[in-house]
Design goal:
Order of helices and strands: HEEHEHEE
Strand order of the largest sheet: 1-2-5-3-4
Low-confidence stretches: none
CATH class: Alpha Beta
Number of helices: 3
Largest sheet: 5 strands, mixed
Structural class: alpha+beta
CATH superfamily: RutC-like
Mean pLDDT: 96
Strand content: 25-35%
Length: 155
């Protein structure tokens, strides 16, 4: 059975990657009641390679937003894994916290994290609208450009 989310992703020319495995001593998600807390997802391209670099130096806003969109895809992959492959259980996105690997003078973190926010709204409609923080980081693990964590409501 194909879900409306899978259909929308296919329309966009995308498919869910395998849910990334944790890179250290943590779990990819924790469910408490009907809330799912997904650990930070780092920017990875379609081939599974890290999208690296610092915004305001090696990368511009458009590249950062594309990296953030890829984080959104990984977030959905983790939600899918938590729901046993049934994304119809995803009720809404509650909150995102986005970290942008950026130079001290770079101030467009919100525009970068919009890549993820816009993606989730495009895929989920109103259920994709969420509260959010977008912050600068002087460095991120493995020199990735973006890392985003999320809280999701499940039915």
């Amino acid at each position: 059975m194909t879900t409306p989310i899978a259909e929308k992703l296919a329309e966009m020319g995308l498919s869910l990657p395998d849910a990334p495995a944790p890179a250290a001593n943590y779990v990819p998600y924790v469910q408490v009641g009907n809330l799912l807390f997904v650990s930070g997802q780092i920017s990875m391209d379609a081939a599974g390679e890290r999208i690296t670099g610092k915004l305001g130096a090696e990368l511009d806003v458009a590249a950062g937003a594309a990296a953030a969109e890829r984080c959104g895809l990984s977030l959905l992959a983790q939600v899918n894994a938590a729901c046993g492959g049934d994304l119809s259980k995803l009720k809404r996105v509650v909150k995102l916290t986005g970290f942008v690997n950026s130079t001290p003078d770079f101030t467009d973190q919100p525009k970068v994290i919009n890549g993820c926010s816009d993606f989730l709204v495009a895929v989920l409609g109103e259920a994709g609208r969420h509260s959010r923080s977008a912050v600068s980081a002087g460095a991120l693990p493995l020199n990735v450009a973006v890392e985003i964590e999320g809280i999701f409501e499940l039915s």
